[in-house]
Design brief:
Residues 6-63 form the HTH lysR-type domain. With 302 residues, the chain is α/β, with parallel strands linked by helices. Helix content is 44%, strand content 20%. The protein has ten helices and twelve strands. It is globular and about 65 Å long.
Length: 302
């Protein structure tokens, strides 16, 4: 049996930060955020039971033991890169990778991160189409289907890669017009709904012991991305999935009036036909999705 190893993501973050002497520069090289590098290094320090860096203002300096560790593991990443280039995808890159995913997820989570995959693998063409068609009806049309889950479908291998929760979100300008100091103040606001998710607001209101609350108005959309856009535009308050509103929260387009309670939500999962699970191209993209999902969970404490 092979000995237990730390997370590859944590090792990659440590190697880049140690080589460059900067978490910021390591984040730029790895196409992730500064916070993601910091969290991965911290995880590795916890796993090893020893500090790896001394922090000096905006620079970081390796401890003597960490410098020796870096000297040993650094060449291993070069070997992995050479081996992958030589054996991993020489035939797979001759064809595109086809992915089917929900529109709102694609627009708000996948597309903003896709450049990191393209930067790492510039020779791979990814073709993405959006729909909400059942997984079983798409088996022959796509290499990978992304849907909520975890669900079981005959003939498919399922792997979750992104967890999320739901909580109220709105724009700051709206609260300046109509204050929202407590959940009971929602009676003065417009609640934004999506027709395919009719229970989200009732379930959240039940959690705050206001099951009978009647808002000032209700506005319902047939697509979830329209619901979120209406929240950004100040039309009302939506129940936002943490994964899909993270960018808007970071940019200040949306805020969270109540940090709790948070409703549990289905995870995003990859569904791949059993006969394709060992395909090098699919394995590569699936691993990248899981890496991005892990980084998101660390940054957002999900």
């Amino acid at each position: 049996m092979r000995p237990t190893l730390p997370s590859l993501n944590a090792l990659r973050a440590f190697e880049a930060a140690g080589r460059l002497g900067s978490f910021k520069e390591a984040a730029a090289e790895l196409h992730v955020t500064h916070g993601a590098v910091s969290q991965q290094v911290r995880l590795l320090e916890e796993w090893l039971g020893a500090p790896l860096f001394e922090r000096h203002n905006r620079r970081v300096v390796l401890t003597p033991a960490a410098r020796a560790y870096l000297t040993e593991i650094g060449p291993l990443f070069d070997q992995l890169a050479h081996a992958t280039a030589r054996y991993g995808l020489s035939e797979a890159v001759a064809r595109p990778l086809t992915v089917n995913a929900p529109a709102t997820f694609t627009l708000r989570w996948l597309v903003p991160r896709l450049e990191t995959f393209r930067a790492r693998h510039p020779g791979i063409e990814v073709r993405i189409e959006t729909s909400n068609e059942p997984v079983e009806s798409l088996k022959d049309a796509y290499d990978m289907v992304i849907r909520g889950g975890p669900d079981t479908f005959y003939g498919y291998a399922m792997r979750p890669f992104l967890a999320e929760e739901r909580l109220p979100v709105c724009c700051l300008a709206l609260l300046r017009r109509v204050p929202l100091r407590a959940p009971d103040d929602l009676r003065h606001h417009t609640l934004l709904h999506t027709s395919s998710l009719p229970r989200v607001w009732p379930d959240w209101l039940a959690q705050v012991d206001l099951p009978e609350l009647r808002p000032a108005a209700v506005l319902t959309f047939d697509h979830f991305y329209l619901t979120l856009q209406a929240a950004v535009d100040g039309m009302g308050i939506a129940m936002g999935p943490t994964a899909l509103v993270a960018g808007d929260l970071a940019a200040g387009r949306l805020i969270v009036p109540f940090a709790s309670p948070r409703l549990p939500s289905r995870s995003y999962c990859t569904y791949v036909a059993d006969e394709k699970t060992d395909d090098d191209l699919i394995v590569l993209f699936r691993s990248w999705l899981e890496e991005e999902g892990e980084s998101f969970a660390i940054e957002h404490r999900i």
